Amino acid sequence: MPSSRYKDMIKKLLSIFHDSPNSFEGQKHGEEVLMLLRHHPFTIIIKVAFFVLIGLVPIVLWIIFSALLEEHGWLNAFLFVSSIWYLVLWLGIFHSLTIYTLNAVLITDRRIIDNDLHGLFNREVSELHNNRIQDVSVHTNGLLETFLKFGDVTVQTAASEKQFIFHQVPKPEKVKDVIMQITASRHTGVKTVVQ
Prior knowledge:
The chain is an alpha+beta fold. It has 6 helices and 7 strands; from the N terminus they run H-E-H-H-H-E-E-E-E-H-E-E-H.
């Protein structure tokens, strides 16, 4: 049945936006993923809404200047420029969704892996083992972050190593609690359970 096949294909395509607790590249034997973090969905919704508004520009220009465009014979040029406009717009949406999807933080029972995509071909992966964690702090800034419950989580490492900062993650207090449980479990030997 063709409609079932298309539904499965769409489901597989959209599955990239779901958290996958199964495995990841470089996972060690017996390592368990506790959390997969991305930026709060509000951040990508704002970007996509901006692109939708920009997409209305050629439509509004057509409504206002359609008679003038047809009178001077500029209709084909307008359609060509509009096509280029929508192509660039589509590339911007694709870029934003790709960056949103691939920028992720994995918190496992042994380490924290921060995967930062700075561009389509510029990726930085940082790893922090749980025995190097010294302190975890949360910073929410402003009304939106407070009401929508997202903010920044900063993990201070041992010695002079760099800080790990996870920007605009949902439920930063919960993330902090999980990281602190991982750190405590290192000392007590009690397994960390995420609720």
